[in-house]
Design a protein that fits this description.
Elements (H helix, E strand, L loop, with lengths): L1 H40 L10 E6 L1 H6 L8 H13 L4 E4 L11 H10 L6 E5 L1 E2 L9 H11 L3 E4 L12 E2 L4 H6 L2 E4 L12 E8 L2 E4 L1 H10 L3 E4 L3 E5 L4 E5 L1 E3 L2 E5 L13 E4 H12 L15 E6 L9 E2 L7 E2 H14 L4 E2 L2 H21 L2 H24 L2 E2 L3 H33 L5 H9 L7 E14 L2 H6 L3 H21 L2 E7 L2 E6 L8 H25 L7 E16 L4 E6 L1 H16 L3 E3 L1 H7 L3 E9 L8 E9 L2
Parallel strand pairs: 1-15, 1-16, 2-3, 2-16, 3-7, 5-10, 19-20, 24-26
Antiparallel strand pairs: 4-6, 8-9, 8-14, 10-11, 11-12, 13-14, 17-18, 21-23, 21-24, 22-23, 24-25, 26-28, 27-28
Helix pairs in contact: 1-12, 3-8, 7-9, 10-11, 10-12, 11-12, 15-16
Length: 648
């Protein structure tokens, strides 16, 4: 029992070690591996808002308006079109203007002096981990950025504070920077595998908080000027709008998973207009002509303007779960769409992942060890399929749960459970064999185990030697003893003889009251089974002599035994019924051995062998011949031989 407990504890520690090693080896990246696949499977129900639209400087724009870089006054035409000819609610420019246009300085001057009239326009900036260049007035730029990012963030975090590594931001063209009305950052973090799955809503820089481009646009539209940043959420409230963003605070960024929408093509999920069509429509209106695009299509829309063309400086594409060539402009629009609907994609917590894996591991382990093999495997397969459907359901509802890891642990648990089951059953088999060895000969039992699938009635005829040993007048002796004493003597007697039989290649066939029947030659093969039997009997008699002396000292009765041995052909195998078998030996050789043993009483001997046995061992024994003995069941008389000494 104690050994079993130790083995169980050891296996428990081994399985716990396997679980921990696999979990922490796969956990950091396993969820990301399944994220993209399942996201695509559940994309159809994620429909973008028709109120969020894009204006892209695309290949068509470069072909129709002019080569890149454009005169910056072209941007004014787009902004003016949206502000004065449409009822667009807010517009965002996803771009950075850092260097002056030396080719068209007048165009630059016009752009910089006019940009401030677009009150509902928000433009971009990018934070950097590098320091400002020496020629930049850091204090001036920092104060200017704070004034242009007019959102109040109340810090309610209790951890991960002051971890920002941002040291500067893009040095925007000075005149442009001064005149633009509002600025939000356009930084988008990338995961270690190169995919964009999260977006930063707030960045901490120099002890202050700054909003992203789309977050600032949302603030301007809703009128929410004050937000609360906690360890797990960003909160914002107004009379008409409520915002609750599930976030992770990492390295000075408040990050959340992007809820991507169904694609319209490989680049965009939101409606996209070519910048050239907007500029040409603006010019047509100015000339009193019909525009290519009716300005009313932008009424009550949220418009994002940016570049995405094959020109080297304009190829703004990103790898996302839904497309390898997703437009960077649409990432900002998608984030705004998420803010507008107040619906965000969420990632299951590490604690959930750990416990679901542990639960699956334990559940499968229990099933394997308590159910039949087929039922257990069907149950495990069903669990894996049902969990996959559950994962799809959660993804449909914008919650990403770990998929690969729990399924991996189902397989790992199956392997561990069947290993455990094998070890336990193997241990049980050993115990059963040991237990059955107390009822059957060990060699008979081994033969049964070896041919477990071919056990049947029947056997074969074989040349064997049979040893029959009986205690003299044991019935009379036992009448004067209590049952416990009789049992003790017999148990000690049999315990002493059995090892001698087995040590001489014999097989104990059965106990018959106080008698012993042993077989030599089958199922254990031997070169001279008759000699093995004779040597065995000789040592048995010596052992009994030792027991006699011992029992006399203990006040127990003296017992004598007689041994008869016969060699010849006999049937050996299974007899009985299909439900109950017995491995035994039948035939004249067995009967002869029993009757020879009885002649010990007649001739006052202890050890008699048949003539057939003597012929096989005569070179190894000293005997006294008893001639012409009539054996019941035999027509002719035979010689018997009393063994006096066995020569080693």
């Amino acid at each position: 029992m104690e050994l079993k407990q130790k083995n169980t504890k050891f296996l428990f520690l081994v399985f716990a070690f396997i679980f921990i090693v696999i979990y922490f080896a796969l956990a950091p990246f396993s969820q990301m591996k399944s994220y993209n696949f399942l996201y695509k499977l559940t994309l159809k129900n994620k429909v973008p808002s028709s109120d969020v639209v894009l204006i892209a400087i695309d290949d068509k724009s470069l072909h129709e308006i002019g080569r890149w870089p454009w005169k910056r006054e072209y941007y004014l035409e787009i902004f003016d079109f949206l502000q004065n000819y449409t009822k667009a609610k807010v517009m965002g420019y996803d771009g950075l203007i850092m260097a002056p246009d030396f080719e068209y300085p007048l165009s630059d001057k016009k752009f910089f002096s006019s940009i401030n009239k677009f009150k509902n326009l928000t433009t971009g900036v990018a934070f950097s981990y590098d320091e400002f260049e020496n020629n930049i007035d850091k204090d001036y730029y920092n104060k200017l950025l704070a004034a242009k990012s007019d959102v109040k963030i109340i810090d309610k975090r209790t951890k991960n504070k002051n971890q920002s590594d941002f040291k500067s931001f893009t040095a925007l063209q000075n005149e442009y920077f001064k005149n633009v009305n509002s600025i939000g950052f356009v930084n988008v973090p990338t995961d270690s595998d190169g995919y964009i799955r999260q977006i930063a809503q707030i960045i901490e820089y120099k002890g202050k908080f700054y909003p992203s481009l789309s977050f600032l646009m949302f603030s301007k539209y809703t009128g929410i000027k004050e937000f609360i940043l906690s360890d797990s959420y960003i909160f914002g409230f107004s009379d008409k709008h409520t915002l609750k963003i599930p976030i992770e605070n990492k390295k000075g960024m408040a990050l959340n998973y992007i809820c991507f929408y169904n694609l319209k093509d490989a680049y965009y999920s939101h409606k996209k207009y070519s910048a050239s069509d907007i500029i040409n429509s603006y010019r047509a209106i100015k000339q009193g002509k019909k525009p290519i695009i009716n300005p009313s299509v932008f009424d009550n829309k949220f418009v994002f303007i940016g570049a995405n063309a094959n020109a080297q400086a304009l190829n703004d594409i990103a790898r996302t779960p839904i497309s390898e060539t997703f437009s960077g402009l649409d990432i900002q629009a998608t984030n705004f769409d998420n803010l507008l609907s107040n619906r965000f994609f969420r990632m299951s917590s590490p604690l959930y992942n750990f416990f679901i894996c542990l639960f699956m591991f334990i559940l499968v382990f229990v099933l394997i060890n308590t159910m039949p093999i087929v039922g257990a495997l069907l149950s495990c397969t069903s669990i894996m399929i049902l969990y996959m459907f559950f994962a799809l359901f959660m993804y449909y509802n914008k919650v990403a749960i770990s998929v690969i890891l729990p399924e991996v642990f189902v397989i790992v648990s199956i392997a561990c459970a069947y290993s455990y089951r094998y070890l336990i059953e193997d241990n049980k088999k050993v115990k059963i064999q040991k237990a059955m060895g107390k009822y059957l000969s060990y060699d008979v039992m081994q033969n049964v185990v070896k041919n477990i699938d071919n056990i049947s009635l029947g056997g074969k005829r074989a040349d064997i030697t049979v040893l029959f040993a009986d205690i003299r007048n044991f019935t009379s002796i036992s009448e004067n003893m209590d049952a416990n004493s009789v049992s003790m003597i017999l148990n000690e007697y049999f315990s002493a003889l059995v090892p001698i039989i087995e040590g001489h290649n014999g097989v104990l066939n059965k106990f018959m009251g106080d008698a012993v029947l042993a077989i030599f030659g089958e199922p254990k093969k031997s070169d001279n089974h008759a000699l093995d039997a004779v040597k065995c009997a000789y040592k048995m008699l010596k052992k009994v002599k030792y027991l006699q002396d011992k029992w006399i000292e203990e006040g127990k009765p003296r017992i004598e035994i007689g041994i008869g041995i016969s060699s010849g052909e006999a049937f050996i195998g299974n007899i009985g019924s299909q439900e109950r078998l017995e491995y035994t030996v039948i035939g004249d050789t067995v009967n002869t051995a029993s009757r020879i043993e009885n002649y010990n009483k007649v001739y006052r001997t202890n050890f008699l062998i048949s003539e057939a046995t003597y012929e096989k061992v005569k070179d190894y024994v000293d005997v006294i011949t008893i001639k012409n003995v009539a054996i019941r069941g035999k027509e002719n008389k035979i010689n018997l031989y009393e063994v006096i000494r066995v020569v080693d």
